[in-house]
């Protein structure tokens, strides 16, 4: 497994997670290769977000192993902070620092965590803001931006850390419908550039267009793990058929 071509970017082995009596992750074992875009689908309460949040230990696990590029995810401390800085995260709520400008929001991680010089961090931040289409907003504060703009800034902030993988936990669910596509467009372009991504979403169009792989969850377990075409045209399980008929039937 030493060859970097075969070490998966993310591997989860026999991961278990409970909230009290609720078994939210049931013996999850998956490998995600470098550059793969994995979309996690499933009904509410199926464990999708929990799965996503365990990958950078925002949620601790009860048992099992999670590795990033072969390195075991530590429970806490400096090693966790270092590994976590390689794993970007974009949340439902944008989690930007309200009292800092957009540019400051994007430069903060690289200067504080990666010890990049202010000048280099700013140069890179401006490139990223341009890439996500919000350069003109660089001196504004988050509250002055639309939800879609804030989420694009959150993606730029994640990219500024030069992560190996980015996790997206329902990144468009808090947005007005007309803002969803501007965020998904940025995500599609990232996918095409080869960023390793794990995306929990209800956006079926994005799942069909950008995913290399669909993981469908129900009741804390992985029910299907397949390519988008197979999943959307010929789901194997009753749970997936039921889910798709409800989602696509509207």
Q: Which key terms come to mind for this protein?
A:
250 residues; alpha/beta; six-stranded mixed beta sheet; four-stranded antiparallel beta sheet
CATH C-level name: Alpha Beta
Strand order of the largest sheet: 6-7-8-3-9-10
Mind summarizing the main beta sheet? 6 strands, mixed
CATH architectural designation: 3-Layer(aba) Sandwich
Beta-strand segment tally: 10
Shape: globular
One letter per element, helices H and strands E, the order comes to EEEHEEHEHHHEHEHEEHH
Q: Strand portion, in percent?
A: 15-25%
Query: What is the domain total for the residues?
Result: 1
Distance between the termini: 46 Å
As residue ranges, the low-confidence spans are: none
**Global structural class:** alpha/beta
Q: Overall pLDDT, averaged? A: 93
Number of discrete helical segments: 9
CATH topology heading? Rossmann fold
Would you identify the CATH H-level superfamily? P-loop containing nucleotide triphosphate hydrolases
Q: Helix and strand layout, with pairings?
A:
Blueprint: E1 10-19, E2 22-32, E3 37-41, H1 48-54, E4 63-68, E5 71-72, H2 77-84, E6 87-90, H3 102-112, H4 118-131, H5 147-160, E7 165-169, H6 177-192, E8 196-200, H7 204-210, E9 213-218, E10 221-226, H8 228-233, H9 238-248
Parallel strand pairs: 3-8, 3-9, 6-7, 7-8
Antiparallel strand pairs: 1-2, 1-4, 4-5, 9-10
Catalytic activity: a polar amino acid(out) + ATP + H2O = a polar amino acid(in) + ADP + phosphate + H(+)
Protein name: ABC-type polar-amino-acid transporter
Membrane topology: Peripheral membrane protein
């Amino acid at each position: 497994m030493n060859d970097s071509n075969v070490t998966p970017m993310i591997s989860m082995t026999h991961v278990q997670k409970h909230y009290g009596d609720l078994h939210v992750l049931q013996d999850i074992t998956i490998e995600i290769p470098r550059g793969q875009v994995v979309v996690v689908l499933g009904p509410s309460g199926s464990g999708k977000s929990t799965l996503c949040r365990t990958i950078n230990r925002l949620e601790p696990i009860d048992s099992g192993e999670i590795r990033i590029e072969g390195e075991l995810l530590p429970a806490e401390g400096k090693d966790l902070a270092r590994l976590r800085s390689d794993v970007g995260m974009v949340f439902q709520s944008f989690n930007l620092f309200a009292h800092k400008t957009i540019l400051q929001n994007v430069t903060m991680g690289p200067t504080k965590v990666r010890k990049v010089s202010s000048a280099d961090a700013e140069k890179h931040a401006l490139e990223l803001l341009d890439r996500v289409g919000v350069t003109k907003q660089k001196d504004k504060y988050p509250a002055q931006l639309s939800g879609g703009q804030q989420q694009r800034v959150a993606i730029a902030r994640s990219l500024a850390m030069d992560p190996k993988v980015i996790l997206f936990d329902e990144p468009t669910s808090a947005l007005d419908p007309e803002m969803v596509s501007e965020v998904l467009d940025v995500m599609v372009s990232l996918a095409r550039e080869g960023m390793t991504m794990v995306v929990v979403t209800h956006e079926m169009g994005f799942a069909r267009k950008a995913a290399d792989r669909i993981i469908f969850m129900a009741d804390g377990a992985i029910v299907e793990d397949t390519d988008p075409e197979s999943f959307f045209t010929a789901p194997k399980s009753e749970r997936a058929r039921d889910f798709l008929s409800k989602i696509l039937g509207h």
